[in-house]
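Re: beginner question about structure tokens

> Can someone show what the tokenized structure looks like for a real chain? I only ever see the sequence side.

Sure, here's an example I had lying around. Input first:
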Amino acid sequence: MFTGIIHYLGSVVGYRQNRQILVIKAADLPGPLKRGESLAVNGVCLSVENHEAQKLSFHLSSETLALTNLSQLRPGDLVNLELPLTLQTPLSGHLVTGHVDALGTILRIQSRGEGKRMTISSPENLRPYLVPKGSIAVNGVSLTIAFLGKDYFEVELIPLTLQKTNLGRLRPGDKVNLEGDIIGKYVYNYLSKEK
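And the corresponding structure tokens:
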């Protein structure tokens, strides 16, 4: 479980074994992390295979490759990193599981003073969990839905978010990992069964 508050960035070193092993460099990440420990990479909960000399490797399942943007990364790309929530961790964002619901596409980015407003497509399977002013994780970053359209939503990015995450480096057409709010998912599932 995570909070969607990003404290670390890593950079992609590359892939091994036909893209089944992702290797990233994370100089600032405390560690070393032990084999099997969890780390959110662009909002995807992954198990650490190895962590040494500031490099981490992760096995990517076929489902992870199919449902997330981790298969589309290039060497040098920055990725958002988050350590798991502990009982001492302030819950500054919202509860994020690291289980991506869908890939969205950035449709538009508009400057708003020092910040930006980003428009992202919302795939059909994600829409039941989205509400205006509700929470959503975009590449693992906890954000508030500023506007909800029929097949898209908009989020506001403050300067701190642009500086501390990879969202400020994205362009229209880029794919982002999306995770709906876990509470919304449970409520939707419960109400669907009641009908």
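Each token stands for a local structural state, so reading them left to right follows the chain. Residues 8-82 form a domain with the Elongation Factor Tu (Ef-tu); domain 3 fold (CATH 2.40.30.20).
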